[in-house]
Amino acid sequence: MSLPNCPKCNSEYTYQDGELFVCPECAHEWTAGEEQAEDDVLVAKDANGNILADGDTVTVIKDLKVKGSSSTLKIGTKVKNIRLVEGDHNIDCKIDGFGAMKLKSEFVKKI
What we know:
Blueprint: E1 15-17, E2 20-22, E3 29-30, H1 32-40, E4 44-45, E5 51-52, E6 58-60, E7 64-65, E8 72-73, E9 78-79, E10 83-84, E11 91-95, E12 99-103, E13 108-110
Antiparallel strand pairs: 1-2, 2-3, 4-5, 6-9, 6-13, 7-8, 10-11, 11-12
Family: Belongs to the YjdM family.
InterPro entries: YjdM, YjdM_C, YjdM_N
Domain Protein YjdM C-terminal: 45-110
């Protein structure tokens, strides 16, 4: 029987203690069901390292050029009710005056 790698640090030196799997390198403990659940969660961090979640409100931290438009998204623009998606631009949102848009999480900060 092959034991799974640690979902936190990807260490191959895990061992089983009863129903728990344990990583000796980072001391992370998990059950077999948690392993699959952690892989499905999208994690996006803002410019300050705060973890973002669906429905958060963020502000833009620098002027951003909008492709296909002559206007720019100004610093300090508030974006409400974000949705996290997979890909390079990991925030999907609607911005007043611009419409639907995708942003990179590194150019926003959580309010």
